[in-house]
Every structure is written in C-alpha cells, then in structure tokens.
Amino acid sequence: MQVDIVVLAAGKGTRMRSQLPKVLHPIAGTPMLQHIVNTVAELSPLATHVVIGHGAEKVRESVLGEHLSWVVQAEQLGTGHAVMQALPNLRGDIALVVLGDTPLLKASSLKALLDSVNTQSYGLLTVESADPTGLGRIVRDANGNVQKIVEHKDATPEQLAITETNTGIMAIPRQLLEKCLPMLSSNNAQGEYYLTDLIELAIAEGLQIVSAKAGSEMEVQGVNNRVQLATLEREYQRQQAEAAMTAGASLADPQRFDVRGSLSVGNDVFIDINAVFHGECVLGDNVSIGPNCTFYNVVIGDGAEILANTVVEDARIDARATVGPFARIRPGTHLGEGSKVGNFVETKKTLLGKGSKINHLSYVGDAEVGDGVNIGAGTITCNYDGVNKHKTVMGGGVFIGSNSTLVAPIDIAAGAFVAAGSTVTNNVSDNQLAVGRARQRNIDGWNKPTKKDK
Ligand code: UD1
Ligand code: CA
Predict the structure, then answer these.
(1) Each residue of 386-422: pLDDT tens digit?
(2) CATH fold of 3-220
(3) For tag attachment on the chain, is the N or C end more exposed, with fewer CB atoms within 10 Å?
(4) Distance in Å, CA 13 to ligand 1 centroid
C-alpha cells in the first residue's frame, strides 16, 4: 500500500493573536509543522503534501523535509476543501490526512491507523476527550459501527454528550477522495466543506469504517491559542525529562529542564536546575551540569563537570575537564582531557591541551594551546587586527603570567614563560622567558600632591 500524507496547515489561527502563521509557532524551538513533517517522514510516504494558505510564503521557507510538496489553498473553505486542493497531486492508494497544529503526534499512532485499513476501508483516529468542547463527535450505532462525525456546532444535545472525538487524522483511499470529495456540501453551521462529511459518503459507497485510538489525548491535542501551546510545550519537555532520566541522568527538577533539539546522556549524569539543551547534545557517563547552563551542539566526555551559569556552543569538552562557573565556551572550542576553564573566561576556536588551565578572567580565541599550559588571570589573545583574525600558538608546558596581552600571530614555544603584565609581540622560543613591560622605577623623595586653595 502506497501512502501519501496530506498535512492541513492553511488556517489562520486567529486565536493565537499573532503575525506568525499558527503552524510556525514553536514547540521546543521548532515550528509545530516541522514536528509533524518529521513525524510523518517516519512512515516513508510517497510524498508529503502540505496545504498552506495564511502566510504561505513564510511557512514554505521555514519548514524542511524530504519529498515535500506545497499546495496553496487560497481561501480556507474547510478541511474537505483543503484536501481537495491536494488531490490532483496524490499518487498513492491511501491518503493519510493529518493536521499541522498537533505537534505531539507520534508515528506509532499513525502506523496503527494505517495497519487497520486497506483500499476498501476508511480509517479514523479517534480519542476519548475529557473535554470534547469544539471537537467533532464520533457517532456510532448500537453495534458500535461508526455512522458519522458531527461537528460541535452542528451537534444535538445528545450528540454533544459523546466523549469519543475526531482527532482530524484519517486514512482515506484515494479513489474515494476522487469520487466523493466533489460531492461535499457546505450546508452546515460554519458554511464549510467538512472533510468529516466524507464518512457518510464512504458508507454509502460500501466502504468499511475502521477506527484506531490515539495513544493519549495530549498526542492529538491541537493548538488554538498560546495557553494550549504552553501546555503542549510542558508536556513535550516532561517527555524529554523522562527520556533523560530513563537513559541514566538524575535531574534536580524535571520541571526545570528543557531540550530544544536532541540530548543523549550516559549513565550517572547529574543535571541541576534550569539546563537548556539546543541542537544535538551528547553527554558521557558521570557528567555533572550545574544550575543555569545553556548548551548548543556539544559533546561532553565522561566525568566532565560544568559549573553554574556556563554557556557552551558548538564545542567539545573532553573527559574530566572542568568548566565554569560563569564561563562562555564559543564555537570551535575543544577542551582537552582534564583541562580547566574557570570563571569569566571566554574561548573561541581554541584547542586547549590536556590538563591545561585558564582559571580566571581571560579571552582566548583562535588559539592552539598545548598540554599542561597555565594561562594566568586576565590573559587576552589579541586575535583581531581590525580586518583579519590571527592565530596564537602555545607549546606544551607554557606559563603565561597574569594580565598578559598576546598579540597574534604569535608563537610561544614549549616550556616558555611570559612574565606577568607583558605585551608579547615577538615569538618566544623554547624555555625562554619573555618580559614585555616597562621596567619598574622607584623614585626617592617623591612629594605627594597637596590640595590646592580655591
Ligand atoms: C477539525 C475537525 C473536527 C476535529 C478537529 C480536531 C472538520 C470539519 N472538523 O475541527 O472533527 O475534532 O479538527 O482538532 O474537519 N484547515 C485548512 N484549510 C481549511 C480549514 C482548515 O488547511 O480550509 C486546517 C487548519 O489549518 C487546521 C486543520 O485544518 O490545521 C483543522 O482545521 P480547524 O478549523 O482547526 O478544524 P476544527 O474546527 O478544529
Ligand atoms: Ca475551527
């Protein structure tokens, strides 16, 4: 059975009160529609047809995927009308219709639905709703067979009491769509072409209506306003926290932990409160993360310790290194095994060798630092001449005294020593001492300034 996906994403989302099209509002930093596109990709469909309308250009630019095809629905005349716009592009046996605003949807529920249908049946994904207000009700006969779906606004008081609702997700044979979509009418409370009216037409065509239950209510919960957006964000993060704990991380507080990308953790990891992980983050065994740390694409080795209020971006931190508190590790940094970067240190495009230390108040950028190097407090690599960036190279065992200015390009060879307060502009050879500062003079008989009469 070949499957086309049809994602309905043309609606305005008036209740979001936003310039941004509703389906671009993010969950965990990623547009809702992107979550859906990623999820349906797990089913390896022939193609994913996304029906767009409001903010079409912006939506198209913001979402990426394989075999994506964009269909513009100029006027939003209802869910049936939306599917109709995609119909000429469909090639598979079955169209799986999903909504663009249910970001927590799981591929497992879609697979269960697809497994229950063939080209002679019509599949519905339904859910038991604690509060079915606004949702389409699943109307069944005495034998439990689905008869139709009634929209909230069109329902009788009896039908309103039904708690089994339409998730909006359906698996529909393409042949039925071709025959019956043109037969839909907009003679209803909202004056729309309802996709849900297709059920009765399918029954008349002799198709069997089958249904599968969604894994949970949250999974198919739609977002209509920012309150629901926040509820789903928290649910998404609850799931991320649970996954991290299951994989071996202890979290000081699962409710103050956010993954906006992917996080993989080893055993016996500890993560204190307010950690935020962006992009792809990988933590080895026994990694410890202090409070209020932010990470973007990092690989952190076994036993490394990240102390409070540290920001790490596009960097690699090897085993047993210590970073922070208050460190900023910028892109292209690689901190070697057992190295130390302390408070108010910024690094960028820097390789710090094994066991090397930058303990306090320094900027080290575009640098290659050997093993066992000690960089004193207040050291600055002057890597930028206003036009180009230049490199600073330090051999193993180098010692840089406090408050030194290293004017790149510069090469400080193994074992060399730079005296505190030096401005170093010439290369230093093996084991040399560089002193680049004015010699101290002590002046005898110095007269202290006195206060002038006014
Ligand atoms: C729809 C279902 C309802 C179901 C509910 C689940 C219909 C008639 N009703 O109702 O049974 O319980 O979803 O959330 O199908 N859209 C378009 N073009 C349109 C209209 C809608 O692309 O012309 C898109 C919207 O952007 C949205 C989705 O379709 O992503 C659902 O539309 P919406 O108006 O929210 O439908 P509901 O009234 O919630
Ligand atoms: Ca609606």
Answers:
(1) 999 999 999 999 999 999 999 999 999 999 999 999 9
(2) Spore Coat Polysaccharide Biosynthesis Protein SpsA; Chain A (3.90.550)
(3) C
(4) 10
